[in-house]
Amino acid sequence: MPQFDFKDKVAIVTGSSQGIGKQIALELCKKGAIVIINGRTEKKLNATKERLQKAGFDVFAIACDVGIFSDCEKMVKEVVNKFGRIDILINNAGLAMEGKIAETNPEVFQKVMQVNVLGYLYPIQAALPYILQSKGSIIFNSSIAGFVGLPGFSGYSISKMALTALAQSLRIELKGTSVHVGINYIGFTENEISKTYFDEKGQLQIMPKREGVKLMPVEKVACKILQGISRKRQTQTFSGMGKVMHFLQRFCPRLMEIILSVTYKKRMKM
Ligand SMILES: NC(=O)c1ccc[n+]([C@@H]2O[C@H](COP(=O)([O-])OP(=O)(O)OC[C@H]3O[C@@H](n4cnc5c(N)ncnc54)[C@H](OP(=O)(O)O)[C@@H]3O)[C@@H](O)[C@H]2O)c1
User: Angle, to 10 degrees, between the axis of helix 119-134 and the axis of helix 154-173?
Assistant: First the structure.
């Protein structure tokens, strides 16, 4: 199979001012792609652009909220006006939450759906005419919470499961167009120290360092995502634990429920 060439491919990475998205942007730059980074906070986005520039890579930064359709339309217009095409759309922007269903402010669910679901759908709707022209790739960054409902993270799980439906529908609708649709079920990854999550009250909190679980290095996650694009993979499940959970949920769902119940009880006692 000929090696996929990222050189001069125009790639938008949503939510790339920090974390996994930022690393994907860096890896794309290293491969010679024309990279558009995105996030809502202009200051954070510009700091990332500067850091990439210092590393020798020039990226185009667009501050916008992917949960707002008109923002996505503007972003796509700006990219097409400047570069004339879009080859790769990596949907990555995401919000995290934690809280029991009974005790979580309903607004938290609304915010998470707006970004984690509509914030994937809207960039696709805006960019699709151009990705059809380039026969490019549309990528969904999901999570192991996308194949099993995690207690205490229900809003997040709902949003990540919805992405499976979106990716499946889209792939079938695009059959015969040569557009690649790939979904990544990412496992626990080393976080940026500034990563936040919504607590039950809807307050943003700094995500504490996760203890007792093996974290995948962010570089490894980003490289695997690019490998999925070059090999046109439909799905990828990251980390050994992710693969085990995926298998158990598919073939032994009762056992998966017992394991999750036990670990949840333990977590609640801590
Ligand atoms: N980290 C993990 O362990 C892990 C595991 C599995 C899956 N994932 C998934 O991987 C993706 C990236 O995770 P991460 O840990 O790198 O996240 P992160 O560190 O919290 O970064 C999220 C990025 O998204 C941006 N963002 C948030 N809302 C946005 C919006 N409405 N419009 C545009 N940009 C927005 C943020 O910038 P602003 O706040 O400035 O907008 C930031 O750049 C997420 O979809 C997440 O669910 C992560």
Answer: 20
